Every structure is written in structure tokens, then in C-alpha cells.
Amino acid sequence: MRASRFLPFLLLAAALPGLAHAQTARPALQDPAAVVAQAEGLLQERAASWPGRAIITVEPPRIVNQQACERMEVFLAGSGLQSRTPVGVRCLAPQPWTLYVQASIRILGPYFVANRLIRRGEVLSLDDLDTREGDLLRNRRLIGDPAHIVGWIATRRIRAGGAIESSALRDPNAIERGQQVRTIARGVGFVATSEGQALESGSPGAQIQVRTPGGQIITGTVIDAHTVQVMM
Q: What is the reported pTM?
């Protein structure tokens, strides 16, 4: 009778070594720091094409049951770099899993501001510009390359000290909607020129529609500020 009272304890003691072995044999969980490092590496690679200094912060993931990964790949879960960018992390082996981490990104770089009042229709020169530093990723219309400003035409008033944005400038070789243009039609063995009215705005290389004097609408490629080429 006394031995039967201790039987459950004896059985539990016999099972303990097996339970301890099962616990030690459980696969190790993924190190969150390794996930963060992979995400940071991808974002640094993508930010390298920007003209500035990238400041990247990745939030460590919450690891629940993701097994330690031997083959890991990362990818952007959104549409390119954003101030807040989700990054996907996928494990390929030994146990597949996927998780997402959130990253904050700033790209600090130089951009140009007007050092005087610039009126609509004025052609900008280097003497009209001062530089500032800011987050180029937050405002993608900021311009850091003077080649995209000097010689270009202001399409609206820009106050002194105001940032010069791409939306406020027009390529001097571009065609504006409503403008009269010359059309050149090229075919096998012939070239024909005519006139027309641009129905769209476009920079060199862009496809725009033009209305001919007879009312026909044709599509051509902008060559310069006055010419559209039509392939026959």
C-alpha cells in the first residue's frame, strides 16, 4: 500500500531525463539582430543611389516561433524607398518562414533654394541659387543637381529662400500644351514637314499628340522646343 503511494512520483522521476532531452533538442529561435542587419543592408544598398547620407532605423522583429535561419533573403514590401518602409524577411532553410519589419529612413543631402524672387517665365542661372540640406526622401521634388535648374524656365513664382522644386520648372527644350509646333514626318525615302498644335506638354523624347491644320490627331516624339517627329 505504501509503495503504491509513491508510484506516480517514481514514474515522473523516470520520465524527467526524457523531458529534459526534448527541451534541449528544440531548435533555436531566430536572432532578431540578424534580421535587423539583413534589412539594414538592403536599405543601405537602395539608398546608395540617392545623393545624400542615409539614416536608417529598423525596428527589431518580435520572434515567436521562427526557427534560426541558415538561408535568408530580404525584399521591400512597399513601392520603393519611403520615409516609413516595410521590409520583408524570408527564410528559405531549414524551416521556411516570413516576417516583416518597419524601417524609418531619412536621406540628408543638399538641395537648392532661390536667393531672390524669381518670376514666372524667368530663365534660372547659378547666380540665382543657394544651397540647403534636408531630407530628400520626404520631398522628392527637391532638386540637388544644378544641371536640372540652370537654363530651365520657371513656371510659377518662387519666393526668395523658397525651395526650387521640379514642378516649378520647365525644360527649355520642352513643348507646352497649346503651343504651335513643327512636325516632321519621316518614311522610307521621304521627309515631310508641316505645322500643328501640341495637345500635350512633353520634354525631349516624350510622346505627345499634335492636331494638324486639317484636324487630324497624330502622335510624335518631342525633338526640341519647337519640333515633333512623326514616324510613318
A: 0.66
